[in-house]
Write a structure and sequence with these properties.
About 25% of the residues lie in helices and about 30% in strands. By secondary structure, it is an alpha/beta fold. It has a 7-stranded mixed sheet with strand order 1-7-6-2-5-4-3, with helices on one face.
Amino acid sequence: MQRTVSVPSLDKCDDLIHTFRDLYQDRKVFAFHGELGAGKTTLIKVLCQDLGVTDEMSSPSFGLVNAYSSAQAEDIFHFDLYRLRSPRELVDIGWFDYLDQEKIMFIEWPEMAGELLPDDTVDVTINVDPKNQQRTLTITYQP
């Protein structure tokens, strides 16, 4: 299944937030694809805030994963795999333990995980219009 949502800016994305709220019921792993600067981290912050996260949020570029507390979704894991050298490193930090917890996982640069992403991962591709900076998100998942 595929949905496309256009947002004028990442701070005005109510339609997108509602789309994700629907998906959280059955899905836990969300893989964000897009060029450097496309807004992956910003979008994840918006989604975490909607889930009730009040912690300081930042991209976990050097630690690979941040855990955020939320009253609505318990822990939320935010992965940034940009600096990953191989999928083996992901296994070494306890990837399968994270998956087994069945918590919401937001993953930047998921291409670096190779074949380690679950089959029911929701793929979110962010494209930016260079003329007006509007973002079009294509959300793809198995029904």
